[in-house]
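A common beginner's mistake is to predict each chain separately and then try to dock the pieces by hand. The better habit, illustrated here, is to supply every component at once so that their relative placement is modeled jointly.
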Amino acid sequence: MSDWRMRAEAHRAVRILRVVEEAEGFSTLYFRDALCRKAQPGQFIMVWPPGMEEVPMSLSTIGGESSITVKAVGLTSRRLTSLGEGDLIMIRGPFGRGFTLMGEKPLLVAGGTGVAPMKPLVEEMLSRGLKPTLILGARTRDRLLFLNRLRRLLGSKLHIATDDGSLGFSGPASKYAERLLDEGCFDAVYACGPEAMMAAIYRAAERRGLPIQVSLERYMKCAIGLCGSCAIGPYRVCRDGPVFNGEMLRRVLDEFGRRHLDPSGRSTPLEE
Amino acid sequence: MVEIRLAMEIGGLNLRNPVMNAAGILGLTADLLRRVYEEGAGAVVTKSIGLKPRMGHPNPTVAIVEGGLINAMGLPNPGVEYFLGELEKLRAWDIPVIASFFGETLDEFVEVASKLSEAGVDALELNCSCPNVEGVGILGSDPGAVKRVTEAVKGCVDKPLFVKLSPNVSDITEIARAAERGGADGLTAVNTLRATALSVEARRPILSNVTGGLSGPALKPVALRCVWEIYEAVEIPIIGCGGITTWRDAVEYLLAGASALQVGTAIMTRGLRVFREINMGLRSYLEENGFRGVSELVGLAHES
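With all components supplied together, the output reads:
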């Protein structure tokens, strides 16, 4: 029998190499892990700072060094952002289906920490000779994550949208995306961010007949496709997602952007 | 050519094949259970439903160990009132449903079972053996209590009732006989085995609940022994559960005395195709060995 403790599903300890504060309350934690090194952009890991709750996090860097990018909101995320070099976290994964490459000139839309899986996706696309355009959205210019890194990667193909208009387009990234979709000749759309934003972009892509992929987030327990706590329609976000394509989204329109399961399994309205 | 029959009957339930999901696996929503059925299961089993909604334990709720998985979900469920809506959908889709349920008192067991029964489920599975919630697991190791709760539930529902047994007892046949005397129509053997796992780096238990229940291949020899012993002790049929991953595991359980089978952890290692894989393997085994139906295998090894 193969060694189960070597499986991606098994917990393992990694040491934090360094923590980079991206903006106030947003930090990226770097570490090394052989399995995360080979992850697909869009896949996630379960992160457990011992003594706290274990939570799902997208990989924001994939390679010799891997990273997660954390927004300090709850007890666990505040603990994560307070960690430093040499501190230990337990991880398992990578899990789920990541993004697949479509088209030659894709439009990517990232809102808030939704940029986390988009950064390695941009890197993957560039290395495969695609010509991605990214809209980086946030509430204010101080909250634009990976701005310098993305500027170096994308140059003029990086667009900014801020809710308060402090930089770039003033208003929601989804609205700016519609404008770009009408002007440009994009052949595919990707989105990650607040679900209402992704739902708006999904509708914009569908109206234009463009293929789309979005990355969903749900409350999760097992992360290995068994418990059903992350269900949306017939899908498990942990195993069938977290990346959903248009065909999958069409089957869950009564839930996508609208409802999610609470930890007891009751369908409740999404609040963002 | 002789037609091979995977279809079978257990405790009054007629199923297209003997393979179902185990309780707790994907049974939180009707949509997920429909997918399990479409992937080839003969019936679907719901999450264990209680009277009130429960969030379950905080994460980490699973830990991988050699050959298996330890979980301590803590019986998360939306509560019976809410779940009636999910059951309604399953009934409209004509999917055979076994509703797993639990209570914290005898009255609760009866109340939940009555409501599930009125919702038109095809059968009930009484969970008196969850090792991760205080009180619920202890009930399953007390033969007197198992008989009383089985009797009480049978006294007010007219559906087939399976009692799911715990392997965390010194003599499982004693509990099996108690359930049979209480009027159970069948037994599910077994629930998970109490276990734990620690991280040497974090120097603490992995599960927030400290202990959990072991499932997967590591549980199989123990569960199979339970099925073997129960088969010799009672007349009512057995649903075998514990580490079933391949058709070979399934055949072993049938030979040991199980009439039907439940699959859980193998969905992690094999994916949802595991239902079709096991059924196809069963069919080939029956064909190659001159059997016409899956029921011909049940308990066969006891005759040798």
